[in-house]
Structure formats: structure tokens, C-alpha cells
């Protein structure tokens, strides 16, 4: 999963990146000047499953975070490596400045998170309108003149793009209204930024840390929708805490009323926003956690593991992680008649341990 950290200049993007990646895997520059950090999602269930099957290797879900430069400076559309990263990203983390600091001037002269959220969305919308208008111009001719099969495809595309455009014209980011998986897939190649799920991350000042929950609730109420999430944290404090030994960090957190760690909270907010479920494969060689969209079938889960496994799918043996641990393993679960045999249309549930039987 790739998450792009975006926002206006000096909103705290790099500080958020540091807070989320420090002490969690590697941060590296990719040679183009963009920092990339890999964060492994901590999951206690996975660790326990690995112990149960005596796994040689444990593979958590990995999230790649990309720290991007400020977008839309002087109204310019994203270009070069930043544009590529944005196009590939599964979701955006929009860092919004809510901290006050005289020595770090805000590009608009004052701190006003609501204004910045609206302004940033307006930039995303403008960017996408230009893309859609260019595409519509090209394809409208095809929709009128091409041979029947091609014409029908083009007409369908014109219809879908027209609908997206209507939302953009109304200043409404389509991420919250175009939610049909097939439609999102059909639009995937355009790189529409306002269609990407977005977590609004309110970067609060140190003096507001004790009010974090209240602030977060306020922004959630106002902005959280289908594929827009909202959370609040003090990036600078979190970046500093992330550098401390865990025990010390916990003590500081308690003293400051800073709650749980930033990484866990942000990743949980992303998971919730993307409506992902986690499933496990409990192999001796490798016990692994995976994520797929809510409502996905076990056949899609198989495809995530390997396309060969999807192609040769016969059936899947499925059991909830807790039940598997209670029973003591797959052999015991089978004996107890608790290892369910599921066909390709079975909808994967949170915490399922899945073993796909397949032939190649
Ligand atoms: N007081 C305070 N300062 C912060 C906080 N987050 C960031 N800053 C400061 O704001 C300045 C800008 O932070 P960066 O993380 O570099 O911001 P950025 O969005 O990456 O900036 P650009 O990449 O230049 O657009 C730095 O001096 C940070 O220390 C915060 O939560 N509280
Ligand atoms: Mg930066």
C-alpha cells in the first residue's frame, strides 16, 4: 500500500513523515530526492499465529509512505516524480497546519485549517478538471464516429467522465460520491487526485495536545465521509517521541495526555477509511498478514497471494484466527470440524486465516 503525504508548504509533511517512520523500518531517498519510508503494521494476531505454526518468517502488511514537496505552489500542477508518486498512491494523507508559529510563516499568512482544506481540495479539483476536459475532447469524437463496439465503450466513458465532471464543477471531490469499485477501476488510469481516498491529518500545536480528541471529533464531524477520513496529532511532538526508547515515550505520553502512538492511530484511520479487512496465511515458511477491500471474495484474496493461486483455485479452508489459536492448530481444527471449506464466492471476514487449495 502506498500513501502519499501531501499538503501546503510548511504544513508539517516532513515532520509527519518522521513521526510515522521513525523506529518503524527504513526510510530512504529513492534517488529522485523523495523520501520513502516503509512501515510494517504491527499486529498481535499475526505474531501469535506465527508462534502457533512455528513460522520461520513473519510478514506483516507493509505501508510505504512518500514525503512529497508542497503541491500547487503558485498554482502549478504536480509534475515529474511527485506526479508519478501521486498517480500510484492508494490514498493521500493531507497534512493540514493547525499549529501556530511566528518563526515558521504560513504561506497564506495565518493558521486556518478549514480554509486550507477547502483550498487544497479546490486545487485537486482544478487539476482533475483539466485532465477530464482534455480526455473528453479527445473521446467525444470517437463516441460519435467510431465503429459500433468502440463507440459504445467511448460513450460509456463519456458518461462516466461527465458524471465526475459534474461533481468537480459543483466543487465536490468525487472520492466520496464515486464509490462503485468498477467505476473507480475504470477511472484508475486518469490519475484523478480528488478521487483518491484522503485522510485529513490536522497537525496541532504542542499546547493543544490535551484537547486532541475534541479537535479530532470536530474535524471528523465536519469532513469525514465515505472515503475521506480525519485525524489529529501534533507531528513535532510525535516525531520527538518516536526517537525515544519505547518505555520513556510511554511515560512522556502519559504525562502530556498524548494518548496512544501516532503511527498506530494514523494507520488505523487509513484502514478504516479504505474499508480494508485483514486476513492471514499461516504457513510454516511464512506467516503473513494481507489486506483486501471489505466485501472481497476469497478468490480475490487468492489473487492477492498469487495470480497462479487465483487461476488454479479449487476451494479454501477458512477459520477465524482466534478459533485457530484456541483449538491449537489446523490439524486439531480439522478434527473438531471447525475448518470450513469455502468456495470462490465466500466473502473474507476480518481475521480469517485462509489456506487456498489450488492446482496449477
Ligand atoms: N510547533 C510545531 N511546529 C511544527 C509542527 N509540525 C511541524 N512544525 C514545524 O514547521 C516547520 C515545517 O515543518 P516541515 O515538516 O518541514 O513542513 P513541510 O510541510 O514538510 O514543509 P515543506 O516540505 O517545505 O513544504 C518545521 O520548522 C517544523 O518543526 C508542530 O506540530 N508543532
Ligand atoms: Mg517537507
Shape: flat
State the separation between the terminal residues, measured CA to CA.
Answer: 28 Å
Structural class: alpha/beta
- What ligands are attached or bound here? guanosine-5'-triphosphate, magnesium ion
Order the strands across the largest sheet as they lie in space: 2-3-5-1-6-7-8
How would you portray this structure in words?
- 45% of the residues lie in helices and 21% in strands.
- With 360 residues, the chain is α/β, with parallel strands linked by helices.
- The strands form 3 sheets. The protein has a 7-stranded mixed sheet, sandwiched between helices. Strands 4-10-9 form a 3-stranded mixed sheet, with helices on both faces.
- Strand 9 (276-282) and strand 10 form a beta hairpin.
- The longest helix is centred in the middle third of the chain and has 33 residues, at 113-145.
- Residues 13-14 line the site of magnesium ion (MG).
